[in-house]
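Hi C.,

You asked whether I'd gotten around to modeling the 242-residue construct. I have! Everything is below, sequence then structure, no commentary in between.
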Amino acid sequence: MSNLAGVAEQYLGDPGRHQVELAALVDTVRSLPGSLGVTLSGPGVAGRPNVLDHVWASSEARFRDADGSRNFTSGETLIEDELSQEIGRLRAAVNSEAEEELAELSGQIRQVSTQILELLTQGGADREAEIAEMDAVFRVLYLRATNRLAAVGARHSGSIPATPALLDNEVLFYHSVLVFDQSTEGWYAGMVRFRRSVAPTRATVSEEQRAADARLVRLSLYLLAALWVFFGLLSVAVRRSR
């Protein structure tokens, strides 16, 4: 999920411009064992930016027609599922935590960006070395910021149901996506949903249980044979002692 969220982060910052990439991303997960599809969601198109859970790309059956074509409108179709009611809370939580994580880095990045802009405005070949140096600093700071945001997103991921004891036929894994964009309010960019059937897991568990049972039967037979040998030797020893 972290890898999937890491790729989604590149596109959910501006999903309207990356429809092809988002569609390709959700299709790559179809071949995973038990996969029931991936859905990428986030704030809606212009006029609906405050509604946080619009579909931008999905390979889930509920968002596909029988021929495989999509039956949703990107950035406009709302998601209604077991996670929907939690999106507002998750967004507030990740934004608050990210703000704390980036309190110092954000200021440093703004300062370096301003310096680069000033150098570009001044122009001149003698400024190229300074620009290259400041650009390298910016890249290091930006990488630190994105890594911290990724860590925040990972901490706000999970599954529904949350415990194996509550599993029915499928489980919904989710992972918050945060994007470093100082032109927007907050860092939350969207959500990755991965719906998976528990059938492969149950099959694996059943196979492991059968193997364990077979090992137990073999061990029992070995012990039984050893006991027969032991009692046989004991019987011989008793007869000789008489």
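If it helps when you're writing up: The two ends are 75 Å apart (CA to CA).

Thanks,
B.
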